[in-house]
Amino acid sequence: MAPKKRSLGDGDEQEKTETQENKTKRKPLQKHQFSKSNVVQKEEENKREGEKKGGAEGLQEVVMQSRLQTASSVLEFRFNKQRVRLISQDCHLQDHSQAFVYWMSRDQRVQDNWAFLYAQRLALKQKLPLHVCFCLAPCFLGATIRHYDFMLRGLEEVAEECEKLHIPFHLLLGLPKDVLPAFVQAHSIGGIVTDFSPLLHHTQWVKDVQDGLPKQVPFVQVDAHNIVPCWIASDKQEYGARTIRHKIHDRLPHFLTEFPPVICHPYPSNIQAEPVDWNACRAGLQVDRSVKEVSWAKPGTASGLTMLQSFISQRLPYFGSDRNNPNKDALSNLSPWFHFGQVSVQRAILEVQKHRSRYPDSVANFVEEAVVRRELADNFCFYNKNYDKLEGAYDWAQTTLRLHAKDKRPHLYSLEQLESGKTHDPLWNAAQMQMVQEGKMHGFLRMYWAKKILEWTRSPEEALEFAIYLNDRFQLDGRDPNGYVGEDVWEEVWQGSLGSPAHLLHLEKGSIWV
């Protein structure tokens, strides 16, 4: 006799009985503006009180209270199913299922994580244990110890928080296809939830895991990185920010909501997580250890929220006017935490938008760069599988680049010369060496940096290869959709231009490297 099946949708009737009070709390935002509901006003009061208690710790307390005010758990929250898409053919839970798994990948945090929340929602409905798995590959697309150390130290924080919430955290050593299906079969896992990335390596990982899973195990994906899910924002590759902007703003009222909390899981598991030897994990990595860790950016969600608090209190007032001035300290510096998913962009927007009345220009520009342009990058990589190749550019851009391929170039540099900052241009050298030493570069200078690489190499193909290599080797947020699509690399390919520095510095462009 075939085992009985339960639909993953069982229990949705609970959502239909939500109270009028909760509906009022979730009153939709008006188009092109943010809500000033009683809940948000209360959050502002709490935030001011929190700041009196001590900066970032106060912000963390306010954020925690905001989640609790939204719902006691995700089971009491009206989860927007448009964030979810089915990967497997079967969406029914087998009767013998022992637990659910959240396969954490791009979004490496516990709270403010729609994928984690959806996994707990399913587990709570079925009264089953919940497990978190992270698959650690020994090497990855040229990542160095700088990147791995930042990630692993953040994951240590995740593991500690999971333990406090009675949710076992499993660090599986190896590629997902080699370790995750085996874990699922060995422990009778009933269903898997994973997060979303548009990049080819991640989509291949998802496909490989799907192929290795038993056919009856439901497998779903949740976009926990974008505010508006990538497949909802647009069903095609967008031409640029001007074509996707209204699509995102039109949908923000439905998706820019407060988060419910991930709670202490009430259904314990008899599957114990193996203690993680983090030092042994680092020692076993097959990575370049010559690119050292940086001191200015401390990994983990707590440190990321500290950076968010410092941005709001110290730099947000000047972001609107000074964000494109490398001589001013006006940027958020949040890109590393956004890239590793240690801080949610949605959380940052929820906190920043509370200051909209005081700093309207700064808040509007931060939303443009952190939401519109960042989600445009995901859109491009999702719908254009040649995002890291010259073939991914529009035909007219490729034609223009070919026409200029034999233009005279007064200076030609090797990759080694560029990497060590040994060009004739002191500004470019300084920007390059900041990236080498600190793992970051001011967003406006990154446009200049990329444009000069296009001038100083033998072909557009070589320029793109060098730019991606240098960016991914040294930038803390390397191997990100923004790195392939942002002004630093692809803007030059789209323009098909070898313009002068003077022309570049008059571009009215905002940097997505916030």
From TrEMBL:
The keyword Acetylation does not apply. Residues 14-23, 41-55 have a biased composition (Basic and acidic residues). InterPro entries: Crypto/Photolyase_FAD-like_sf (IPR036134), Crypto/Photolyase_N_sf (IPR036155), DNA_photolyase_2 (IPR008148), DNA_photolyase_2_CS (IPR032673), DNA_photolyase_N (IPR006050), Photolyase_Class-2 (IPR052219), Rossmann-like_a/b/a_fold (IPR014729). Residues 1-58 are annotated as: Disordered. Its cofactor is FAD. Its EC number is 4.1.99.3. It is an enzyme of class 4 (lyase). Keywords: Chromophore, DNA damage, DNA repair, DNA-binding, FAD, Flavoprotein, Lyase. Belongs to the DNA photolyase class-2 family. Involved in repair of UV radiation-induced DNA damage. Catalyzes the light-dependent monomerization (300-600 nm) of cyclobutyl pyrimidine dimers (in cis-syn configuration), which are formed between adjacent bases on the same DNA strand upon exposure to ultraviolet radiation. NCBIfam families: phr2. This is Deoxyribodipyrimidine photo-lyase. It comes from Monodelphis domestica.
